[in-house]
Specification:
alpha/beta, 6-stranded antiparallel sheet, 11 strands, 21% strand
């Protein structure tokens, strides 16, 4: 049997937990892990007793850290507390997964393994799939270190070869922890995601322009809202315009956010376009990938990832000049 993985999380982060479980699929198929979380409880199970049993059985603890996790007395005090105890005893491994920005460094968790790399919250990665893949690598390494992974022969043993003595206890039938269902996204969901991304970009560009000006002598910057669906960004060096861009949201070319490599604010033309896509769990932005060095059409960009990409288009020419 694979390593027993206890997933501790706030129910407000259930969508991110679902996304993580998608990325754990290969580890499960290889028989390396058996994930458990409270959604596996059956009707009639006693909550505290069942969770306590799993806390004592786990080989690896995944703590999905967010402001809501820290605010939850049960997650933070009971589940995290037991995970720390067992890690310090050497009977289990503890891995903290930083989902959203919070003061996790001020907790005892700052002394233990944190993923993704450098503790950058998953919600802040340009592509969440890359962030979760980073987490999976840490889990795979931890499984190898615990020695709980089955041998190649055991991993290939068909269910029919399992003897009755090795079967699961009668009170709990073996079943998958994968209970997620495909999510349906309406036109209203996609439009809301698109316009939220546009407003985020306006704030992102304003903050980035302000910082660029503050850090560099001779640099002046300007952001102008042309209307509710368009803004321009301009950079001057010693009074001379050296970079500019126009970002627009709308349906001229279908629902999309477009980029034009000058600050003219012109309509009906663009150099790049970001459209809303989705998988079975989340919405994301996909670029056309026209500019050289872009992330490619298969990229699944978050609001921050898309804003960073367009900012790179603005500043790359300036950095090379």
């Amino acid at each position: 049997m694979g390593a027993r993985v206890f997933i501790s999380y706030s129910h407000k982060d259930e969508q991110l937990r679902n996304e993580l479980e998608v990325h754990l699929t290969m580890l499960k198929r290889q028989g390396l892990i058996e994930p458990w979380h409270d959604r596996r409880l059956l009707a009639g199970d006693k909550l505290d007793r069942s969770i306590d049993e799993e806390l004592n059985r786990a080989d690896i603890f995944l703590l999905l850290i967010s402001p809501d996790f820290i605010a939850s007395d049960y997650c933070y005090e009971i589940e995290k507390g037991r995970a720390l105890e067992r890690h310090q005893e050497g009977t289990a491994r503890l891995i903290s997964v930083i989902l959203r920005p919070c003061e996790w460094q001020e907790t005892a968790l700052g002394e233990f393994l944190v993923t993704p790399t450098d503790g950058k919250p998953i919600s802040k990665w340009p592509d969440r799939d890359e962030a979760f893949q980073d987490v999976v690598k840490a889990i795979r390494k931890a499984v190898q270190q615990t020695g709980a992974a089955p041998s190649p022969t055991a991993a290939r043993t068909p269910p029919s070869a399992v003897t009755p003595s090795a079967a699961a206890p009668a009170r709990e039938r073996p079943r998958s922890s994968n209970m997620r269902l495909r999510k349906d996204f309406s036109d209203a969901d996609r439009d809301a995601f698109l316009f939220e991304a546009f407003e985020f970009m306006a704030e992102f560009f304003q903050g980035s322009l302000d910082e660029l000006q503050a850090r560099n002598d001779g640099i002046e910057t300007r952001l102008r809202r042309k209307d509710g669906d368009c803004f321009t960004a301009t950079v001057y060096r010693n009074g001379n315009k050296v970079a500019g861009g126009t970002i627009r949201v709308g349906n001229t070319f279908g629902p999309a956010i477009t980029w034009l490599g000058d600050d003219s604010g012109r309509k009906n033309t663009h150099n790049e376009s970001l459209s809303v896509g989705h998988d079975d769990q989340k919405l994301f932005l996909s670029p056309m990938g026209i500019p050289f060095g872009g992330p490619g059409q298969d990229a699944h960009l978050t609001h921050e990832g898309a804003a960073e990409y367009l900012w790179d288009l603005l500043i790359s020419g300036l950095q090379g000049s």
